[in-house]
Design a protein that fits this description.
Layout: E1 3-7, E2 21-24, H1 25-29, H2 33-45, E3 51-56, H3 62-75, E4 80-88, H4 91-100, E5 105-109, E6 121-128, H5 136-148, E7 151-155, E8 166-170, E9 173-178, H6 182-191, H7 194-202, E10 207-210, H8 216-227, E11 235-236, H9 257-264, E12 271-275, E13 282-286, E14 289-291, H10 293-303, E15 316-320, H11 326-334, E16 337-341, H12 349-353, E17 359-362, E18 366-369, H13 377-391, H14 395-406, E19 408-419, H15 421-434, E20 442-443, E21 446-453, E22 456-457, E23 464-465, E24 470-474, E25 479-484, E26 492-502, H16 512-527, H17 529-533, E27 540-541
Parallel strand pairs: 3-4, 3-5, 4-9, 10-11, 10-12, 15-16, 15-17
Antiparallel strand pairs: 1-7, 2-6, 5-6, 8-9, 12-13, 13-14, 17-18, 19-26, 19-27, 20-21, 21-24, 22-23, 24-25, 25-26
Domain Alpha-D-phosphohexomutase alpha/beta/alpha: 14-149, 184-285, 294-406
EC number: 5.4.2.2
Protein name: phosphoglucomutase (alpha-D-glucose-1,6-bisphosphate-dependent)
Length: 542
């Protein structure tokens, strides 16, 4: 067999965002578009001789894309590709396979929490040898290569059967099709006390896991039902579908409303959780109680030592800047390092590699640890279950005890989606223009003590990242942050993050929206979201 070079490209705008390149599926299916971006990856990483992991979340176009990438990898001199059977791999499982096999990197085909299907979104993400998302230097090199290439290489041999386990040769390259679940399930079994969780479940503890017709279904069925003994059917929407069954696989109270409502009912199970398209996000609920992702991070960090994988204690906690400061309180109490990074898991990699953080998290339903280099939805669920089994407490009691010990940080994120880009930029520009003059002034009755455009100097490799979100800090620690999403594919999405720390136990049961009212008013006064966009309510509140 031979390979050929197809003259095509370059395409403008192949610039990875917060997490890979995300575009409308139709864009990715346009002639040569996927191929040119993949060629840019191969050029940036110097593909010849490399070992790569490949898989995705099962969304529409994933199988076709995997077949094309295999043929391109062969033509570009890649030595071996380890492929999840059927082209399936959750993001954390892909991260684990890269590490386990000592691979040079991996390509994940997913647009994560964005809806899939013919009219939905598709995405391609490159991960490096530590298993984590490519850092900025690598994504910049990929983007640069995408801007100058004049074609791509592809083998004219057909791709092998994606469903048949085992090794085949494609134009001299080894294709190794592996079970997507097995190695991951074994890793989880090493980290957590499966017998204790199984005993709790056998003792009558009930749970519901909503896989949202995305990639986590097979993982959750194997681990929660087969290995831990949860009743068959505890995992719902468990079969990955190309269009996610029409669902929007973003595990939050809005998009996982069926689970949310069941959990709020007195007849609901003891524990509920959901995951996103590629399995790296999680939402956790107890009966009658929703755990905010920022609180979940803090609770997991405070109790991680109860799980076998973390019995020696944790070394540090890292959170993205817009994530609430609840985790910082835990780090302080434990006497360990706390890190504040820009949004996106790629910024945790150096801290995890250097052993300066063990647990990381983002307010966007992402939590994870140094077991892989991605956030990991099922991992978070299992750590919760391990903690519940070890303490014998329910989610509500555990959260209440956590607040009593550390105080409660009221938190919410307001998303304004699909805004005209100019309107979103006007909001950002108005606030950015005032930042220097804000300290000492008041807004919404609150006194401002600091305001800036977040910049981050990585303490491990010294790299500096600027322009990561506008933040305004008030006396007493209340705060709001405003930034533009880097994962959307339509117009602009404005995210407003709101936070109000509280040490008064008498107020812990107050509605979040009531507690946040002053800081919401301050944000409106300073940034003028309603004035610039005409929107008086966010599209999604988490
Ligand atoms: C969002 C979240 C961010 C997360 C990213 C990828 O990015 O805010 O915290 O890391 O999605 O998550 P943005 O730029 O839209 O705010 V996933 O699960 O979609 O890969
Ligand atoms: Co995701």
């Amino acid at each position: 067999m031979t390979s050929m070079t197809v003259t095509a490209g370059p395409f403008a705008g192949q610039k990875p965002g917060t997490s890979g390149l995300r575009k409308k599926t139709a864009q990715f299916r346009a002639p040569h578009y996927l191929e040119c971006f993949v060629q840019a990856i191969f050029e940036a990483i110097d593909a010849p001789g490399k070992v790569l992991v490949l898989g995705g979340d099962g969304r529409f176009f994933g199988r076709e894309a995997a077949a094309v990438i295999l043929r391109m990898a062969a033509a570009n001199g890649v030595a071996r590709v380890i492929l999840g059977q059927g082209g399936l791999l959750s993001t954390p499982a892909a991260s684990h396979l890269i590490r386990l096999n000592g691979a040079d990197g991996g390509i994940i085909l997913s647009a994560s929490h964005n809806p899939g299907g013919e009219t939905g979104d598709f995405g391609v993400k490159y991960n490096i040898a530590n298993g984590g998302p490519a850092p900025e230097a690598v994504t910049a090199a990929i983007h640069a290569a995408s801007e100058t290439l004049t074609g791509y290489r592809i083998s004219d041999a057909p791709a092998p059967d994606l469903d048949r386990l085992g090794e085949t040769l494609l134009d001299g390259m080894v294709v190794q099709v592996v079970d997507p679940v097995l190695d991951y399930a074994e890793l989880m079994e090493r980290l957590f006390d499966f017998p204790a969780i199984a005993r709790m479940i056998a003792g009558g503890f009930t749970l519901r896991f909503d896989a949202m017709c995305a990639v986590t279904g097979p993982y959750a069925v194997e681990i929660l039902e087969r290995r831990l003994g949860a009743a068959p059917g505890s995992v719902v929407n468990a079969v990955p579908l190309p269009d996610f069954g029409g669902m929007h696989p973003d595990p939050n109270p809005t998009w996982a409303s069926d689970l949310y409502e069941r959990m709020m009912s007195p007849e609901g199970p003891d524990f509920g959780a959901a995951s996103d398209g590629d399995g790296d996000r999680n939402m956790v609920l107890g009966r009658g109680i929703y755990v905010t992702p920022s609180d979940s991070l803090a609770v997991l960090a405070a109790h991680a030592h109860l799980a076998p994988g973390y019995s020696g204690g944790i070394k540090g906690i890292a959170r993205s800047m817009p994530t609430s400061t609840a985790a910082d309180r835990v780090a302080e109490a434990l006497g360990i390092e706390a890190h504040e990074t820009p949004t996106g898991w790629k910024f945790f990699g150096t801290l995890l590699d250097a052993g300066r953080a063990t647990i990381c998290g983002e307010e966007s339903f992402g939590t994870g640890s140094d077991h892989v280099r991605e956030k990991d939805g099922l991992w978070a669920v299992l750590l919760w279950l391990n903690i519940l089994a070890a303490t014998g407490q329910g989610v509500d009691a555990l959260l209440a005890a956590h607040w009593r010990r550390f105080g409660r940080v009221f938190y919410s994120r307001h998303d304004y989606e699909a805004l005209p880009v100019a309107q979103a930029e006007a909001v950002m520009a108005e606030l950015r223009g005032q930042l220097d003059s804000l300290p000492g002034r008041s807004a919404g009755g609150l006194r401002i003590v600091a305001a800036d455009d977040f910049a981050y100097a990585d303490p491990v490799d010294g790299s500096v990242t600027t322009g990561q979100g506008l933040r305004v800090l008030f006396e007493g620690g209340a705060r709001f942050v405003l930034r533009l999403s880097g994962t959307g594919t339509e117009g602009a999405t404005l995210r407003l993050y709101l936070e109000w720390p509280c040490n008064d136990p008498d107020q812990f049961e107050t509605e979040t929206r009531t507690m946040l009212a002053p800081v919401i008013a301050a944000a409106e006064a300073l940034a003028g979201i309603a004035r610039h966009t005409g929107r008086t309510e966010p599209d999604v509140i988490t």
